[in-house]
Amino acid sequence: MAADDADGAPDAMGPRLRAARERRGATLTAVGRATGISASTLSRIETGRRRPTLEVLLRLAEEYDASLDELAGRTPAPAAEPRARVPLSFGDDKAVLPLTRYVGGLHAHKHVLPALDGPPVRPRQVSHDGHEWLCVLYGRLWLALADRDLVLTPGEVAEFDTRTPHGVANAGSGGPVEYLVLFGPQGERLRSRTGGVAAG
After folding, report:
1. Rg, Å, the chain Cα set
2. Which Gene3D superfamilies match (predicted)?
3. pTM for this one?
4. 45-65 per-position pLDDT tens digit
5. Which is nearest to 179 in space by CA: 133, 111, 94, 114?
6. Domain architecture of the chain: domains with CATH
7. Rounded distance between C-alpha atoms, residue 88 and residue 125, angstroms
């Protein structure tokens, strides 16, 4: 079979090749170096903008330790191990789960403060550039904002300039506190398009 005969490969081969690469945790650049196929060509193949030749498929099958039948979809590919979404823990036993992956603009996180073993203590305050919006999902959150002390309950929202000294703590709800944070590092703010219009 001539190399170009593989141009009739199914359109679904691109996603299979991408899945095979991701199972190995390899980047397009790394695969390109190992196989001699440019990263741009690999990208076009994976997105279906170009169909691979037999020579390309043979190189990729060897690199991915896969059979041609597997890459063509004639045999099931091994299932990828699920990636656990593990919260990042830091300082004061707080757990943070990032909800956005891009850099720049608004950042979204879910925060969890553990249940207290003793009486609550006024939060330590920090200040930095930016603007923050937070919403309590569960429990009672103590927000110390400069010389003000607020206790927020589920459904309540606070918004403030983070140059103002601020800190949060579990207000002693008898359980953990969960809340969402949207943070604009350059001072970005939420903008409402509904103007508080209620359903009719």
Report:
1. 25
2. Jelly Rolls (2.60.120.10), lambda repressor-like DNA-binding domains (1.10.260.40)
3. 0.53
4. 888 888 888 788 888 888 888
5. 111
6. 3-72 (1.10.260.40), 88-184 (2.60.120.10)
7. 21
